[in-house]
Specification:
By secondary structure, the protein is mostly beta strands. It has one helix and 18 strands. A five-stranded mixed beta sheet has the order 3-9-8-5-6, with no helix packed on it. A five-stranded mixed beta sheet has the order 12-18-17-14-15, with no helix packed on it. It has a four-stranded mixed beta sheet with strand order 2-1-4-7, with no helix packed on it. About 5% of the residues have low confidence. The structure holds copper (II) ion (CU).
Length: about 230
């Protein structure tokens, strides 16, 4: 039956091609689907439609459906940087290899609103991208009364604290006199050392706009000063 032979060869070749393509598809791994738009939606889902939050390392086919002319889909991370043009609509297919790291996809036109992160392999869990600016420590002031008849309030530079910006301060007080005290009075603040007390005190205070006065109560006419807070 000579007519069967070519048919058999074609059939064998077709099966072989099918197996080979299947094997290649397997080697390339899973297909993920990215979507951006309409509105401010951006997503990356797996074959079952679940949002991608964690993947195994490997090679993936990513099919991105860019449904908006105002947004794009930008996938970045270790070894990966793929982007669709903002002004173009359409379907884009990428082959990417993810390694143990965190990856981000976002719209470059709306990077704070439209950003998602997922981890691959044993990468540490993605950290939330809230940027907390650390508060500066309170500025230090040095208040001194005594010895003898003297009172002062100084900045850490040694200059007299005459005008200060409104904020939090730490006042380090040295009361060196048994017959004077250090008393600071003004908006929201009324702190003092004892007249008979000698030693140190530390006050954390918030100075608000206005005028503050420091004095020694037994001698307030002579031993005093003021600060203007702006
Ligand atoms: Cu956008």
């Amino acid at each position: 039956m000579p007519s069967f032979k070519p048919l058999l060869i074609v059939a064998v070749a077709a099966v072989a091609a099918f197996i080979l393509s299947g094997a290649r598809a397997h080697a390339q791994g899973t297909t993920l689907h990215g979507t951006v738009g309409p509105a401010f939606n951006i997503s990356l889902v797996d074959a079952s439609g679940d949002p991608v939050s964690h993947l195994d390392p490997g090679t993936y086919t990513i099919v991105v459906d860019d449904k908006s002319e105002e947004h794009n889909f930008h996938l970045t991370g270790t070894g990966v940087d793929q982007v669709t043009p903002i002004e173009l609509l359409g379907t884009f297919t990428w082959t990417v290899t993810f390694t143990d790291a965190n990856y981000t996809f976002r719209c470059d036109a709306h990077p704070t609103l439209m950003t998602r992160t997922f981890g691959v392999g044993n990468a540490p869990p993605p950290t939330t991208t809230t940027t907390t600016t650390p508060k500066p420590p309170p500025v230090k002031l040095l208040g001194t009364v005594g010895p003898g008849s003297s009172i002062s309030l100084k900045k850490s530079s040694g200059a007299a604290a005459k005008t200060l910006p409104a904020k939090k301060y730490t006042v380090s007080v040295r009361d060196l006199s048994k017959v004077q005290n250090f008393h600071l009075i003004g908006p929201g603040v009324n702190r003092s050392t004892g007249v008979g007390f000698t030693g140190r005190a530390s006050w954390t205070i918030t100075l608000k706009k206005g005028t503050y006065r420091f004095q020694s109560d037994p001698n307030r006419a002579r031993l005093h000063g003021s600060i203007r807070v702006t």
